[in-house]
Recover the amino acids of this structure.
């Protein structure tokens, strides 16, 4: 599985961005799609997650502002980010978890940088 994240950039506080994660390869065994972020000097943290059944969950810090969604026809997962805050700044990573003969396997895309200016 290969994941390609895009959509990052520089935005003012209060603005919006939409991140995309395009997947290729054998994705039929993917059970969870997620976005993580890593701010400078901090550990990577989960931002949002969506299961193959469509269930979602979010970090408390982004609830009500971010929305994760999936377009199965395009093999793409999105993260719509509204009302952005400077503390949302960081590198955002797309993640996918598959289940199969090897158990659970994590796949990661290269990050895309989001910078929110105050």
């Amino acid at each position: 599985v290969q994941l390609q994240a895009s959509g990052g950039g520089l935005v003012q506080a209060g603005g919006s961005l939409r991140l995309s994660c395009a997947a290729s390869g054998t994705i039929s065994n993917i059970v969870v799609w997620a976005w993580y972020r890593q701010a400078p000097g901090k550990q990577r943290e989960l931002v949002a997650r969506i299961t193959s059944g469509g269930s979602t969950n979010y970090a408390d810090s982004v609830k009500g502002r971010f929305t994760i969604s999936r377009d199965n026809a395009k093999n793409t997962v999105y993260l719509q980010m509204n009302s952005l805050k400077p503390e949302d700044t960081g590198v955002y990573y797309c993640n996918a978890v598959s289940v199969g003969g090897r158990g659970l396997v994590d796949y990661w895309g290269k990050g895309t940088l989001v910078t929110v200016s105050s």
Summary: The mean pLDDT is 96.
